[in-house]
Write a structure and sequence with these properties.
Radius of gyration: 21 Å
Number of strands: 10
Distance between the termini: 22 Å
Strand order of the largest sheet: 2-3-6-5
Length: 181
């Protein structure tokens, strides 16, 4: 995906400035905005008549609040958006699992009677909040966060791969997407 151009400081020069924004500069800026928006929409928002593979994740404002849908049987989406409800739905032959990734049905396990450790608590919180994990494989569409990012910030994976041993430098990443401080 292209880097999103920043308007302020780059394309907001008035005609009376010594270095005004030119018409071709503004067209370049608008083309960039359109390309980034189109790529983001096609990568994450449900689209009609689109091939989806198992594991693909989509969102749409027609879903129940906080939900995402994960493709569990591949196919081509229908011409009209399906009715999204929690559970499994059919979309022109595609099976979607619709769920809220922040809701968990936590059940006791064989380890339920063992003492709680700080590492165990962190791991449980990390799983429940989808914290990015070290040396872990992620797929396109996975939704993650980090306790080192501002509250409410989410990360949507745009390229599958495995994380490294160290957490990324979020300052650099935020600046590249216009998040600033």
């Amino acid at each position: 995906m292209d880097k999103l151009y920043k308007f302020k400081g780059n394309y907001d020069h008035r005609s009376t400035d010594t270095n005004p924004t030119l018409y071709r500069d503004m067209i370049d800026y608008l083309d960039n905005q359109n390309n980034v928006l189109a790529e983001a929409v096609s990568a994450f928002l449900w689209q009609p008549d689109t091939d989806y593979i198992v594991g693909a994740k989509v969102i749409t404002n027609a879903m129940p609040k906080g939900c995402i849908a994960e493709c569990i049987a591949k196919g081509t989406s229908g011409k009209t958006e399906p009715t999204w409800v929690k559970g499994t739905i059919n979309d022109n032959g595609i099976e979607w699992k619709v769920y809220n990734p922040t809701e968990y049905d936590i059940k006791p396990t064989a380890n339920s009677d063992k003492p709680v450790t700080s590492n165990g608590v962190y791991k449980a919180i990390a799983r429940a909040h989808h914290y990015i994990q070290r040396n872990t494989a992620y797929n396109v569409g996975d939704v993650l966060t980090s306790p080192n990012l501002p509250y409410g910030t989410t990360i949507v994976v745009t390229q599958s791969g495995t994380t490294g041993a160290d957490e990324p430098d979020w300052t650099t990443i935020k600046n590249n997407i216009g998040g600033g401080n």
